[in-house]
Structures are given as structure tokens and as C-alpha cells.
Design brief:
With 716 residues, the chain is mainly beta. It is built from five helices and 38 strands. A hairpin with a 2-residue loop joins strand 17 and strand 18.
């Protein structure tokens, strides 16, 4: 009996302390050994790191079914589940992680301005430190290739498209009235403060099927997900003041920002070419509320602004000039939720609502515009793995626009109600680190014209070298006519373009080079037979056109110490037969050549950053009634040099100065001709000059924050 007990004890001890050897080799897709991969049993301390031959070996006392984890940076983690006794002399092949930093990225037609993007041509700070931008994100984007310089307008004109062909979204939800209204020869500005956004994606063409009702471009603005601390921002400027505050709690945060602009004091010192009865005055308020949940985030964004002015502008046909008075109020609210549902599923939903009212008085005419617009959207995304993702969703847009026109006893009302519904689907397929494709399809129903349109889109990217890649894109794009047409005729059909894009991009540490060629083919453009859109116009969709060209971009912040610069060049060849054009011609908003140079230099001894921006644009067509050729003459080229200086008084106090067009170039935006010829049979003209050749700006910006180091230019 004693011998039996001894045998049982030895047997139990042997089983209790029995060890299993886990061994094998880890290789990549090219059968090359992976050195330094981590191999371990899940939930234990048993494991090893692969050696120079990719081999690993360790022992474990675990028994039964176990999970063996194999992981290494830039490769997909692999898990093997089986009896531990089978984990011997394994050969394990790891797949490339398609989300690694060196993986191919779809880049055709897209510029990223984002601190967190794999490939960013700009970052969020560039928006407020570009010398020519005056703190306007649109102004900064106008230094990128693909845009045309239309100095008197201020909106984005992209690749031969007019400004109405670019749509703007905040957190994926549509902004219906992104610009403040203005009058002739006074450029508008974007309504929204760049300090509330940390990511900008500017797609000059070939964009995702998620976005529709835009012929040329989409601009995506993403609000800050989560502030890092409590802070207050104070701004005192020559044109007004601003105040902002951010409060952060455990899972909730609130940012508010308010500003007031009044040009009266500035114009009292620096008068311009207009006869101001009431200089521009505007007030703006914004708020972003964020609530974090375990698996998602809810954001609520709201913005309100009001603006008014009253002036008389010179007119060659009216000796006393044209009296123009404007009063505008605009409210925009945006709510979005983005979260993880589990099993690779995620959701992005949101809605926006816009209320806009504009009252205009021109001489004896009164125009009252009211717009109420809404957008609701639901998007689902499934991540199967780093090689395949699928997203799909649906959205609905509605706009109710009403206009009342009054003049000396005559009253008329116009308007429309538009409802557009859409569904979209898109997949990202990554075949390897060197090759990826994005395929999408969008279906839109336009209620006004009772049309159903299908828009396929596809993008392909291939890495040609470690740092270089080639991308191709194709897409169909549809858009309603603008409000000035729909208010008179709501039954015109949608307009259409096809985009063809080829892009080469080379990225190294601190340097990026992009070259892109494209062609856009326009069809079904709206035409009418009167001087301007009106109730007596006959509208149809017989217009067409094309735009093609080359865009070049270079940025370098490594070659010269403390210097960051970028260069942009665009060549545009375009013609259109639309609106009341008698024949196809280069439209008067299109420049053949555009060039921008932007540089920033940090001077340690001065605690300063100085900035430089130069813009060149070749002349734009204009119509001379003294000749028989339509849009047959060109203005002289546009030139502007802007400088700025940010001086760090202390870590959180900045003195900022800027001068636009510091050399005082006498730019001409076009010409206005007399309605009738003079005694010699010639039509007299006057030059359309900017209201002022130069603009001076001085501001003091003070930040009060928890850490005591942040400022409104972040990294100074």
C-alpha cells in the first residue's frame, strides 16, 4: 500500500509540473524572418521574442486549449486557438497591417490639413498663420493648387468650377450658408472660427460617394474631439474683439467663442473707395458641446452671426452711384454622434438646421430672402479587418427658400421647396501595403426635377517606391441649380460632371511633393436667355463645358532651420457654354495660371514668427462691347505680397501684425462698361478696383490656461 501511495504521489507531481514546449518560426508575406515579434500565451507570462532567424521557443505549464498571440509593429496580430500540445514547430506568416504608417493612402484629389493624418499637406495651425489668410480657413486653402484667385469674391473656386460648386460640411453634416453675404467687389469670409476645428479635408475632385450635390469640390471641417484643458482666449484687434472659453469636465466639455467686428474705426484712419454710410458691423457666437460615452461621442455645434452695412458704390451708368444696404442674420445648429457598436461596426449620424434671413436695399428696390434648410444623415461602417472596410448610409436634404421683391408699388414673391434623398455605399479594399482601391456608388433622388441619378466613383492607389505613390480616380457628380435659378424655375434638371484624376505623391520626413492632372466634363448646365436670371427667363439644361489642368505642390520644413514653406502652381484650361453665354468661352472667374508661395520663419532672438505669402494669377476674361468677341479680352495679372509677424510677449501673450498687398500692387478685378456708346460710338468703361489696395491688421491675443503654456498659435 505504501508503494502504491508513493507511485501516485510521483505521478501527480510529474503531471503537475509537466511542461510543454511551444516553438516555431515567424515570417512575413515574402517568407522573410520577422525579428523581434512577440509570441505569448494569452493571459499568461509565458512567451518569447523571435530571434534573427524569426525563431521562438518557450515552455509552459499550461494545459488544454490556449490562445497563442503573435504580434509585431506594422503587421496584423495573429491568434491561434488550439490545444497547447500542438503549438510546436509552427510556421506562422504575418500579414502586413494595412493601417501602418507606410501603407498606401488614397490621395487623388484630396488635401489633408490635420495633425493626426498620415499625410497632411497643411496642419490646423497653418490656417491662422498664413500671412494672406487673415485667420480665414478659406483664405489659407486658396494658397493650395486647384483654386482660382477671385479676389473680389472670397469664396472657393475650384478647378474651373464656380463657388456654388463647392459644398462645406462640419463633422460630416452639410452647411447650407457657409459665407457671409456681401456686395460687389467686397470679398466675403467664412462664417466659422478656425480655432474650433482640428481637421480639414479639402477634396478638389474625385471625392467619396458619401458626399453629393457638389460638382467640383467638398470641404470637410471636423471640430475638436476633446480639449486637453480649461482655458480662456482673449483677442483685442484693430477691427474688433473676441472672447473664447473652454471648460472641461470628466466626460463632458464645452467651448464657446464670441467676436465683434466694426470697421468704422479702421475706415476712419484708412479710407477706401466706397462711400460708407454705415461701415460693416458684425457679431458672431459659436459653441461646441461634447459628451463622451463608453463607446462613442456626442457633439452639438451651434453658431449665430449677424452683419449689416450701408454704402454707396461708384457706377458708370448712375452718376450718384448705387446705394446698397444689407442686413443679415444666420443661425446654424449641428448635432452628430459617432460611436462603436461592436464586432467591427461603427455608426456616424447627425443632423443640421439652418435659418438665414437677408434684407437688401438697392437704390429703391427691397429684397428679402428667407432660407430654412436641414440635413439628416445616418452612416454605418463595418471593419472586417485592416484589408477590407465597408460603409453605407442614407441622408435627406430639404430647403425652403422664399424671396420678396418690392419697388415703387410693385411686389413679387418667388421661392421653392427642395427635397433630395440619397443612399450611398463604399468599400475600401487593401490588397497589400502597395495597392488599395476604394469603390463607391451613390443614388440620389431630386424631388424638384423628379430625377433619380446613379453616381459611381472609384479611386486606386499604388506605391511606386518606399516614399512615392500613384493614385487614379473617376467619379460622376450631380448638383441642383443654385437658388438664383430655382427661385424662378424649380423644374430645371440637375447638372453633371465627370472627374478623371491622376496623382503622384512623394513624402519624406518634413517634405511632400504632389503632382496631379485632371479633366472634368460638364453636361446639362443651366442656360437662360436674359441678361440675368429672372421671372421672364427661359431656362433649359443645354449647357456644357470642360476643365482640365495640372496642379503642383511642394512643402518643406527640413531643409532650412526654423523655416517652413510651401509652393503651389495650377494650370487651368477651361471653357463653358452656360448661363446666357452665346458661345463656349473661358468663364470670367477662371485664371489660366495660379501660383502661391508661403513661408514662415521662427526667430529665436526675437521670440517671433514672421510670415510671407505671395499670390500670382494670370488675367481673367472680360467682355468688351467695343469688340465682337465674347469674353475675348483679359485683365492684367493679379499680384499680392502679404507679410505677418507674431511676437511672443510672454508664453501666453502674442502681438500679431499683418499687411496684405504690402507692395501696393494696383490690381484690377475687371471692367464695367456704359450701357450706351458715347458720341464716338465707343462704350466707355471704368476699372473695377478692390475697395482698398492694402489692409492692415494688429491684434493682441492672450490665453489663460491650466498648464500656463498654451497660446492661440499653439506652438510659438
Amino acid at each position: 500500500m505504501k508503494s502504491l501511495i508513493t507511485i501516485l504521489v510521483i505521478l501527480i507531481s510529474t503531471l503537475a509540473f509537466a511542461q510543454t514546449t511551444v516553438s516555431g518560426k515567424v515570417i512575413d508575406s515574402k517568407n522573410q524572418p520577422i525579428i523581434g515579434a512577440n509570441v505569448y500565451l494569452d493571459g499568461t507570462y509565458d512567451g518569447d521574442t523571435t530571434d534573427d532567424n524569426g525563431d521562438f521557443s518557450f515552455t509552459t505549464e499550461e494545459i488544454g486549449t490556449q490562445a497563442l498571440i503573435i504580434s509585431y509593429l506594422s503587421y496584423e496580430t495573429k491568434t491561434l486557438v488550439a490545444d497547447v500540445s500542438t503549438f510546436n514547430k509552427l510556421q506562422i506568416k504575418l500579414k502586413d497591417d494595412m493601417e501602418a504608417l507606410d501603407a498606401v493612402v488614397i490621395s487623388a484629389g484630396t488635401f489633408e490639413a490635420n495633425d493626426n493624418s498620415k499625410v497632411s499637406v497643411l496642419n490646423s495651425l497653418d490656417v491662422v498663420t498664413t500671412a494672406s489668410a487673415l485667420g480665414d480657413f478659406v483664405g489659407a486653402l486658396q494658397t493650395l493648387p486647384g483654386t482660382s484667385t477671385v479676389a473680389e469674391d472670397g469664396r472657393l473656386f475650384v478647378r474651373g468650377g464656380d463657388a456654388n460648386e463647392t459644398q462645406i460640411f462640419i463633422d460630416g453634416i452639410r452647411v447650407f450658408t457657409p459665407y457671409s453675404p456681401t456686395t460687389n467687389n467686397l470679398p466675403t469670409r467664412g462664417r466659422y472660427s478656425p480655432f474650433l476645428f482640428d481637421g480639414i479635408t479639402f477634396s478638389t475632385g474625385g471625392y467619396s460617394s458619401e458626399y453629393g450635390n457638389a460638382l467640383s469640390s467638398v470641404l470637410l471641417l471636423n471640430t475638436i474631439d476633446e480639449p486637453d484643458q480649461n482655458k480662456t482666449d482673449i483677442g483685442i484687434m484693430t477691427v474688433g474683439g473676441s472672447l473664447g472659453h473652454t471648460k472641461k469636465w470628466d466626460k463632458t466639455s464645452l467651448s464657446v467663442n464670441a467676436s465683434y467686428i466694426n470697421l468704422a474705426p479702421y475706415l476712419a484712419v484708412f479710407s477706401d473707395r466706397n462711400d460708407w454710410h454705415k461701415p460693416y458691423e458684425g457679431a458672431q457666437g459659436e459653441a461646441v458641446f461634447r459628451q463622451k460615452f463608453t463607446n462613442g461621442m456626442l457633439k452639438f455645434y451651434a453658431a449665430f452671426d449677424t452683419a449689416n452695412f450701408d454704402l454707396t458704390q461708384e457706377d458708370i451708368n448712375i452718376s450718384e452711384g448705387v446705394r446698397f444696404k444689407l442686413n443679415n442674420k444666420n443661425f446654424y445648429a449641428n448635432s452628430s454622434y459617432q460611436g462603436v457598436l461592436g464586432n467591427g461596426w461603427s455608426i456616424h449620424s447627425g443632423l443640421s438646421y439652418t435659418i438665414a434671413r437677408t434684407d437688401i436695399n438697392v437704390i429703391d428696390n427691397t429684397i428679402e430672402d428667407d432660407e430654412n434648410s436641414a440635413h439628416i444623415k445616418l452612416k454605418l461602417k463595418k471593419r472586417f479587418n485592416s484589408r477590407f472596410k465597408l460603409s453605407f448610409g442614407a441622408e435627406h436634404f430639404t430647403t425652403k427658400f422664399d424671396e420678396t421683391f418690392s419697388t415703387e408699388g410693385f411686389n413679387a414673391s418667388y421661392g421653392f421647396t427642395s427635397n433630395n434623398s440619397a443612399a450611398f455605399a463604399e468599400s475600401d479594399i487593401v490588397f497589400s501595403k502597395d495597392f488599395a482601391i476604394k469603390v463607391g456608388l451613390r443614388a440620389d433622388h431630386y424631388a424638384l426635377s423628379d430625377e433619380f441619378q446613379i453616381a459611381p466613383r472609384v479611386s486606386v492607389a499604388y506605391k511606386t517606391s518606399k516614399n512615392g505613390q500613384l493614385s487614379l480616380a473617376y467619379g460622376d457628380f450631380y448638383q441642383n441649380a443654385n437658388n438664383n435659378i430655382l427661385k424662378f424655375n424649380s423644374e430645371v434638371q440637375t447638372q453633371n460632371t465627370k472627374h478623371y484624376i491622376m496623382n503622384y505623391q512623394h513624402v519624406t520626413d518634413g517634405r511632400i511633393f504632389r503632382a496631379e492632372v485632371y479633366r472634368k466634363e460638364y453636361d446639362d448646365l443651366v442656360k437662360f436667355d436674359t441678361q440675368l436670371e429672372g421671372f421672364d427667363s427661359n431656362f433649359d439644361n443645354s449647357g456644357s463645358g470642360f476643365a482640365q489642368g495640372l496642379d503642383l505642390f511642394w512643402r518643406d520644413n527640413k531643409s532650412v532651420k526654423n523655416v517652413d514653406y510651401w509652393l503651389s502652381y495650377s494650370y487651368l484650361d477651361t471653357e463653358r457654354d452656360y448661363r446666357n453665354y452665346p458661345t463656349a468661352a473661358q468663364p470670367n472667374f477662371a485664371n489660366t495660371h495660379n501660383f502661391s508661395a508661403v513661408a514662415k520663419y521662427w526667430i529665436d532672438d526675437w521670440k517671433s514668427q514672421v510670415g510671407f505669402a505671395y499670390t500670382f494669377a494670370s488675367g481673367r476674361p472680360y467682355n468688351n462691347p467695343n469688340t465682337n468677341e465674347f469674353l475675348g479680352e483679359m485683365t492684367k495679372s493679379y499680384n499680392s505680397v502679404s507679410l505677418n509677424w507674431a511676437y511672443l510677449i510672454s508664453q501666453q501673450k502674442i502681438l500679431y501684425l499683418s499687411v496684405n498687398n504690402v507692395l501696393g500692387f494696383k490690381n484690377i478685378n475687371g471692367y464695367q462698361y456704359a450701357d450706351a456708346p458715347n458720341m464716338n460710338g465707343d462704350f466707355s468703361r471704368r476699372s473695377l478696383r478692390p475697395a482698398a489696395d492694402q489692409f492692415f491688421f494688429v491684434g493682441f491675443f492672450w490665453t489663460i490656461s491650466d498648464n500656463g503654456t498654451d497660446n492661440q498659435l499653439d506652438n510659438l
